[in-house]
Amino acid sequence: MNIHEYQARELFEKFGVATSKGRVASTAGEASAIAGGLRPGKIAVKAQIHAGGRGKGTFKNGYKGGVHLCATAEEAGEVAGKMLGQTLVTHQTGPDGKLVSKVLVAEAVDISRELYFAILLDRATAAPMIIASTEGGMDIEAVAEKSPEKILREPIHPLLGIQPYQTRKVAKALGLTGPLMNQATKLFTAMYRLFMERDCSLIEVNPLVVTPEGQLLALDAKFNFDDNALYRQADVVAMRDKSEEDPREVAASEFSLNYIGLDGNIACLVNGAGLAMATMDIIQYAGGKPANFLDVGGGASKEQVAAAFKIILSDPHVQGILVNIFGGIMDCNVIATGIVAAARETGLGLPLVVRLEGNNVAAGKQTLAESGLTIISASDLADAAHKVVAAIGKAA
Amino acid sequence: MAILVTPQTRVLVQGITGSFGARHAQLSLEYGSQIVAGVTPGKGGQVFEHGSHKVPIFDTVADAVRETGATASAVFVPPPFAADAILEGVDAGLALVVAITEGIPVNDMVKVKHAMKGSQTRLIGPNCPGVVTPGEGEKSHGGCRIGIAPGYIHKRGNVGVVSRSGTLTYEAVFQLTSRGYGQSTCVGIGGDPVNGTSHLDVIKMFNDDPETTAIIMIGEIGGSAEEEAAAWVKEHCRKPVAGFIAGATAPPGRRMGHAGAIVSGGKGTAAGKIDALRAAGIAIAETPSVMAETLIRHWKGA
Questions:
Q1: Which residue of chain B is at minimal alpha-carbon distance from A284?
Q2: What CATH superfamily is the domain B155-301?
Q3: Do residue A231 and residue B166 have CB atoms under 8 angstroms apart?
Q4: Distance in angstroms (rounded) separating the CA atoms of residues B186 and A139
Q5: Which residue on chain A is closest to B287 by alpha carbon?
Q6: pLDDT tens profile A33-82
Q7: Is-catalytic flag, A116?
Q8: Which of A219, B60, B120, B173 is the most buried (most CB within 10 A)?
Q9: Is the pLDDT higher at B264 or at B237?
Q10: Which residues contact B153 (CB under 8 A, 6 or more apart)?
Q11: Mean local confidence (pLDDT), B63-84
């Protein structure tokens, strides 16, 4: 789950992480009122969408740039009026662009130094870890490769939490000395508390800056949250913006299905995440391209299978379907019944290859055979992949 | 010998009165496993009945251990309470805790992992299918099944299987059994980013187990556990190993069903893992259809 820039800043404010002054606006009037409370001169108005490249983007109405600097509150209101309700296209949004319904109005700060600071869950040590570097504004992967000595990794003991000496160690490594060291200690401690209390798996501050006035500010950040913890994070769930997500993924999540859209033409429906990934791989190995990842889980119902079917068929690029079920405990006949119901309901005209194995497989195969539908049955996974690729070749 | 559990292992089920736990306790009893106790706080004194089996239910794991001599546990407790259930099993001195529960917050597992340091308990999972040591009976009846794997597809034998994915484990086991090759023990270590036991831990156990003569290791994108196991295999493993890595076509930055299956910052890719396995002399199955075949060819040199 991703969040907007203004939401990241709201989290900063809630946890006492220093950031620049500003607020979110939904109308031009609100934008100009917020700007009126800020120091005049340099006021940034920023379109709030999840995609990057906003500054260089173009609105569909021809207005250029999703980020503008304004001198006055009046100008900020005018700029906001041109962005709100319009669709912004950037190199990351695709040609359809994204509708802008909110703008961030904030003081543009002067920057004397740009730093890199992140907290993430490190799998190797099974603990949170701070990653910090003096090389802010650069691609951190490139820094790690070229000059690994410029990156500090500080693991944090999860049962102790962050210790003051650790914040000083990181501050020192970033060259934050004198009065900046106290600010840094406060900011890093607040950020760690935010990381733990909101069940984050990543906070990557971008950028963390020192201003000419000697202030340390976190201006924006990329957040990743642990999906498993959302049941206890109502605040985080409330920040979800479904209009920014693939509608098929939203529909799938409503049926507790795991779906991820890809750009191929062979849809797959599989039980189990590992087997679902392996099914995508074998489609590619057989010369095809998978259209999606879809795991219906270990205990899928007839309704879930039917819903899954409709979701994969809503992708206009799909030309063939591969169902791969290894029903160890799951009843193969339940899956078969779900497939038949969904295929009838949707008037399926695409080639459908089914590989069923496991519990009650004979009854499942019988249900498919007696359905009157044209279903190509496969003996194993490799056979299924070859058959679906061949079927698409014939249809094309 | 097998590893972790034998057909004699006495098993308790935490969360035996929930629908998921109850269903799989029944299937384990039908498989002939020694399910000797259930634990549900507040339901101590009740009895879990299935056919002719009568399994006593206790309020605490400690009570169950004292009264029944159970040494291993299957955790079916829902995510918000699962970390606590694991720690209760550790506190009661169990040798093995197998956490089946899917969806435990990562921060909870981080704390469990650190709290368990120095304890004598081994944790398998979470978010895993569990452990099976097949029995000698028909369709491997009489084995020890802790978790949710289908028992009947197994066969007693000499191949050790370790995997992050449940369904891919079943796929490998089914392929082996269909070709007449049985398994010593099959271990699902789970798909979460922080788990109790790694590929490497299990491969070391297989290497030391006289009954295991060959190993299938199934991995997937994300993290570096497969690479670490491969490095050890290269230096120390005396037994033939075949491997499969899922997720070659997964887009970067997306979580592929398993919380741990994500390629981030160019790390944890399938290609990188396959290279590491190959460099360690592990035979790579190009597709999940040929996992057993690849092992047999590598093992028998045919």
A1: B249
A2: Succinyl-CoA synthetase domains (3.40.50.261)
A3: no
A4: 42
A5: A282
A6: 999 999 988 999 999 999 888 999 999 999 999 999 999 999 999 999 99
A7: yes
A8: B173
A9: B237
A10: A328, A358, B139, B170, B173, B174, B177
A11: 98
Location of each CATH 3.40.50.720 domain in chain B: 10-124
Q: Would you state the pLDDT for residue A234?
A: 96
Query: How far is residue B235's CA from residue A42's CA, in Å, rounded to a whole number?
Result: 62
Q: What is the complex's ipTM, to 2 decimals?
A: 0.91
Strands A127-133 and A266-270, bridge-based pairing: unpaired
Spatial contact of A359 and A299, defined as CB atoms under 8 Å apart: no
Instruction: Tell me the per-residue pLDDT of B141-170, one tens digit each, with 9 for 90 and over.
Output: 999 999 999 999 999 999 999 999 999 999
Strand ranges in A10-91 using DSSP code E only, listed in sequence order: 22-25, 43-47, 58-59, 67-70, 87-89
Cα torsion for B70, B73, B76, B79, to the nearest 10°?
130
- Give the model's pLDDT for residue A175: 96
Q: Distance of alpha carbon B18 from its chain centroid, rounded? A: 21
Q: What is the pTM of this model?
A: 0.93
Mean predicted confidence (pLDDT) in A164-168:
97
Please tell me which residue, A254 or A280, carries the higher pLDDT value.
A280
| Structural tokens at position B231 | 């490095």
Minimum CA–CA partner of B288 in chain A: A278
Mutate to test the interface with A, among B168, B249, B286 (most CBs of A within 10 A): B249
**In which residue ranges of chain B is CATH 3.40.50.261 found?**
155-301
From B103, B194, B246, residue closest to A277, measured CB to CB: B246
Token pair 């200690």 is found at: A185
Q: Check residue A239 and give its pLDDT.
A: 95
Q: Across the interface, do A275 and B148 touch by the CB < 8 Å criterion?
A: no
pLDDT digits (tens, 9 = 90+) for A207-237: 899 999 999 999 989 899 999 999 999 999 9
Domain B10-124 CATH superfamily: NAD(P)-binding Rossmann-like Domain (3.40.50.720)
- Interchain contact A249–B (C-beta under 8 A): no
Q: In this predicted model, which residue has the larger pLDDT, B211 or A146?
A: B211
**Local confidence band at B26 (pLDDT 50, 70, 90 cut-offs):** very high
